[in-house]
Amino acid sequence: MNFIATGIGAGLVSALLTVVVVKETMLAVLLAMLAPLPILIVALGWNHRSGLVATLVGGLAIAVFTGSSVSAIGFVAITGLPAWWLAYLALLGRQGADGTMEWYPIGRLLAWVAATAAVTIVATGVISSGGDYSAFQARARQIAEAFVALVFEAPEQGTEEAREALTGTLATMTPALSAFGFTFFLGLYLWLAGKIVSASGRLPRPWSPVPELEMPRAILWAPALAFVLTQFEGFVGALGYALFGALLMAFTLQGLAAIHERTRGKPGRGFILAGLYALLFMTQGIMVTALSLFGLADTIFGIRRRFGGKGPKQPPTPSI
Fold this sequence. Notes:
Layout: H1 2-19, H2 26-33, H3 36-45, H4 48-66, H5 69-90, E1 93-95, E2 101-103, H6 106-129, H7 133-151, H8 160-200, H9 221-230, H10 234-262, H11 269-283, H12 285-301, H13 303-306
Antiparallel strand pairs: 1-2
């Protein structure tokens, strides 16, 4: 019964963090963004079934509080189930021939974080629009127009054609941009939950160092799949764009992990990493592109292992 009690508590906390967003303040938005964290913590620390209980309880609590079944379904599909699924994968393991446990590799976890983020972003669009893709497009265009208005602060700035072209591009890329950011936050929440549960002594697996993160080569099929999906109309095409954005962030994170690993024990490592993150903050798009290409090359060629790095060999995958 222990996992049920903890699941109920986590579900209520997560629901509270979600509904506080109605206050429409910056603090409320920041708190709402943390809603998956309690579910991840109980799922990792007690049992993945605790995460399922938290998901169901949170959905019921939101239904009672808001009187909206759509909000409850949104919580379950967008907050609860992604957190439970990632925790479930993190706890997958099997006993090896020598009696030691082989745990699900964190590189494969990152690949699933990207896939989960892409699916969740599209699910959010489906639920919020009631399954009407034209309504989804209209909302994406509103967001794009608001951004363009910030870029061209004065009406005379930029031609009408330039403003319209930028608006159309941003509206089309909204799923990709949303999945790009959501992949980062899902990965951050999973890492943070793992560190918290590990510090409490309840995490059943050793938490692998982030610099050892290396996605499997099978992920290289995903960009091709994303391209194929973008050729379709409707939410299928939106899923393709979302997958592109999620993969861009995943390869960026792997590129960062590879640099962290390659600079281990090197003199001036702190200075190098500080400079890297400063450049990432100042140049953003340029550095993201460079890091994602480096992460992609690391996946294809195994740069760390091939050129003297200490990157881990990919162990057999338990179950999934």
